[in-house]
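Q: I'm building a small set of examples for a reading group on sequence design. Run inverse folding on the following structure and report the sequence directly after it, with nothing in between.
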């Protein structure tokens, strides 16, 4: 399978499961797909989204490629498919995070009175630490930090 094969022919070969066709499709279009994902996904998620995109493409038996209208631009079509996939990826991710448990479920378990006491204790401890740290500074350092009292 050479480079002279058209996108239409390549997609048809991929859909029919021709040996080497998917590898060729990947070589030809993976940079475009990666760039589209990079534009739309959080930097930390790009590689995961990229992998998930190809996993879904294969798992769904190239349904997205089967839906492509031959004669239209495959790169433009792929950009749209990727955009929709990224939206779906984050929708599913949000759903998984909510299913695990959100802050509302945890807050309902907390006693507001205990939380206030605990928070007050932490703030008091931070205040004590801050006062001790301030006292340990040289007079010159305190002055540089804004204590203009002599």
């Amino acid at each position: 399978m050479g480079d002279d094969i058209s996108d239409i022919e390549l997609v048809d070969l991929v859909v029919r499961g021709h040996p080497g066709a998917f590898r060729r499709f990947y070589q030809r279009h993976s940079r475009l797909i990666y760039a589209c994902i990079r534009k739309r996904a959080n930097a930390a998620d790009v590689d995961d989204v990229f992998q998930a995109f190809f996993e879904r493409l294969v798992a769904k038996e190239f349904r997205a490629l089967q839906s492509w209208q031959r004669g239209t631009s495959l790169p433009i079509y792929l950009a749209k498919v990727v955009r929709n996939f990224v939206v779906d990826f984050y929708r599913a991710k949000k759903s998984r995070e909510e299913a695990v448990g959100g802050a509302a479920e945890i807050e309902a378990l907390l006693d507001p009175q205990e939380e206030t006491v605990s928070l007050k204790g932490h703030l008091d401890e931070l205040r004590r630490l801050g006062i001790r740290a301030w006292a340990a500074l040289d007079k010159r350092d305190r002055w540089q930090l804004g204590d203009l009292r002599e």
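The mean pLDDT is 85.
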